[in-house]
Amino acid sequence: MATQTQSMTAGEFAKAAGVSAARISKLIRDGKLKATKEGARWMISQNQLDAKVVRELKRTSKPAPAVQAVPETRPAEKTYTIAEFAAMTYLTEKGVAEWLKTGRIKGIQKETGEWRVLASNFLEPDISRLVRK
What we know:
By secondary structure, this protein is of the alpha+beta class. Helix content is 35%, strand content 15%.
């Protein structure tokens, strides 16, 4: 008699593996993780957590800090609100907020919860190509 393994959504699997859901989706698309499509969701067997590719991801991935504190020893860097930064780039406000949360762009979160995007992000090649001309 075959034992049934528990399936997880890609998001649940990513959380259990300690990596981003986007990374798990890419592994599925690349055929490195076995998954089945059930409705609109990818379902991954729980035993895939022991797959070699997942173990290597856990070992090599380091979570990026979402909040970057600006040291007080240097002058304060120019910052922008999420709306201002979105208006200067081809990103939406939702996209800017998501990239801040995942650490793809750097920012400061004030005590009020408001995000301020650091101007130094424009020096990054991935961001500089998104600047509106």
